[in-house]
Specification:
This is Putative Acyl carrier protein. The protein is an all-alpha fold. The protein is built from 4 helices and no strands.
């Protein structure tokens, strides 16, 4: 799911690809709270993955967000 998350962040939210690593924090990836809200909505609309923006903000790294996506996707299946 990390690659999917990276694609979303780059294509939809215009984040620089080199800033997105599994160890990057939201701040390091330059994701502000508005971008995280947008990400939450995109995940639900386009991928059927329900993760609140609050949960995404609580994730310490981009990799943790990707793991959360994997868990939610598996739980929904």
């Amino acid at each position: 799911m990390f690659d999917t998350l990276k694609e979303i962040l780059v294509a939809m939210l215009k984040v620089s690809p080199e800033k997105i690593t599994e160890d990057a924090t939201c701040e390091e990836a330059e994701l502000d709270s508005l971008a995280v809200v947008e990400l939450s909505m995109l995940l639900e609309k386009d991928y059927g993955i329900k993760i609140s923006d609050d949960e995404l903000i609580e994730a310490e790294t981009i990799g943790e967000m990707a793991r959360m996506m994997t868990q939610r996707r598996a739980a929904a299946a």
